TrEMBL record:
<feature type="compositionally biased region" description="Basic and acidic residues">
    <location>
        <begin position="56"/>
        <end position="72"/>
    </location>
</feature>
<keyword id="KW-0408">Iron</keyword>
<feature type="region of interest" description="Disordered">
    <location>
        <begin position="26"/>
        <end position="72"/>
    </location>
</feature>
<feature type="domain" description="Cytochrome c">
    <location>
        <begin position="164"/>
        <end position="257"/>
    </location>
</feature>
<feature type="compositionally biased region" description="Polar residues">
    <location>
        <begin position="39"/>
        <end position="49"/>
    </location>
</feature>
<keyword id="KW-0349">Heme</keyword>
<dbReference type="InterPro" id="IPR036909">
    <property type="entry name" value="Cyt_c-like_dom_sf"/>
</dbReference>
<dbReference type="Pfam" id="PF00034">
    <property type="entry name" value="Cytochrom_C"/>
</dbReference>
<dbReference type="GO" id="GO:0009055">
    <property type="term" value="F:electron transfer activity"/>
</dbReference>
<feature type="signal peptide">
    <location>
        <begin position="1"/>
        <end position="25"/>
    </location>
</feature>
<keyword id="KW-0732">Signal</keyword>
<dbReference type="GO" id="GO:0020037">
    <property type="term" value="F:heme binding"/>
</dbReference>
<keyword id="KW-0479">Metal-binding</keyword>
<dbReference type="InterPro" id="IPR030999">
    <property type="entry name" value="Thiosulf_SoxX"/>
</dbReference>
<dbReference type="InterPro" id="IPR009056">
    <property type="entry name" value="Cyt_c-like_dom"/>
</dbReference>
<protein>
    <submittedName>
        <fullName>Sulfur oxidation c-type cytochrome SoxX</fullName>
    </submittedName>
</protein>
<dbReference type="GO" id="GO:0046872">
    <property type="term" value="F:metal ion binding"/>
</dbReference>
């Protein structure tokens, strides 16, 4: 829309009024057009008079937008969900689908990350039993190697070999710790979903109980917190890290010579 009024020949306040009225007029016509375009329901899902939604297969699906939590699990079955997931993703090994039948994740999902006392005890016992030591039998490894694993972001992606986003099975995964934590004070960036680990060993010491605690927490955080958001780096088939890598990360966090426990340069 072109305004013929010369703004230089009218007071500034009047010019602003003309522009605002024009903008309102234009937005009104756009809003009306948007309503017309948005009004038809899609063929896949239509709303009935009773407030239920009718799916493509004819099923009536209840949905209350005021309380979405009550609707969870009603719209599709577990089998329908898995069918959709398997159509959407490619995997290198069918064993990778086992993650969807994990009993701990199932309990956490159903309870919305609030398991009852018995469920929590069951999870803690099961996850604790999964923890194993490295072959060298120590909780701490090489902190310089640990620095490499902490910074590494390779691993945990789904895709066939050759695809841009596929993991290289010949390459060890990284932990990508900086996505959630501050670790080395000299590292240029970090996330804040998890607590800062800067100065971890300086504040906590390097005694064997602390080594054991740190190793076990990285290996399987759910052995301490049943529905922890932290990945179980060492647990189960297709684990992200080897026990030796986890020991290296423990050393990176605890060793006095590690930059984690040194002043920022």
């Amino acid at each position: 829309m072109r305004l013929n009024t010369k703004l230089t020949s009218v007071p500034l306040a009047l010019a602003a009024l003309i522009l605002s009225q024009s903008a309102l007029s234009m937005s009104g016509s756009v809003d009306e057009q948007s309503k017309k375009e948005a009004s038809p329901q899609t063929e896949a899902t239509t709303q009935s008079d009773e407030g239920a939604f009718v799916a493509e297969d004819g099923r009536k699906l209840k949905y209350d937008p005021k309380n979405d939590a009550e609707d969870r699990g009603q719209r599709i079955s577990e089998a329908e969900f898995m069918q959709a997931v398997k159509r959407s993703f490619l995997v290198n090994d069918e064993q990778e689908w086992k993650r969807f039948s994990d009993p701990t994740l199932k309990t956490c999902n159903v309870s919305h990350d609030k398991p009852d006392m018995e469920q929590a005890k069951s999870i803690l016992a099961r996850e604790k039993a999964s923890i194993v030591l490295p072959e060298h039998g120590r909780y701490m490894g090489d902190w310089k190697q640990g620095k490499k694993w902490v910074e590494g972001a390779h691993g945990g992606r789904i895709g066939y070999p050759g695809f841009v986003d596929a993991d290289n099975p010949a390459k060890l995964n990284g932990a990508n710790c900086y996505a959630c934590h501050a670790v080395d004070p000299n590292f240029p960036q970090n996330g804040n979903m998890g607590p800062s680990l800067t100065g971890f060993g300086k504040m906590r010491g390097q005694g064997e109980p602390m080594q054991k605690y740190t190793y076990e927490y990285i290996f399987n955080a759910k052995s301490f917190n049943p529905c922890s958001l932290m990945p179980r780096f060492g647990n189960g088939e297709g684990h992200l890290l080897t026990p030796e890598q986890i020991a290296d990360i423990v050393a990176f966090l605890l060793d006095p010579e590690s930059p984690v426990n040194q002043p920022k340069q």
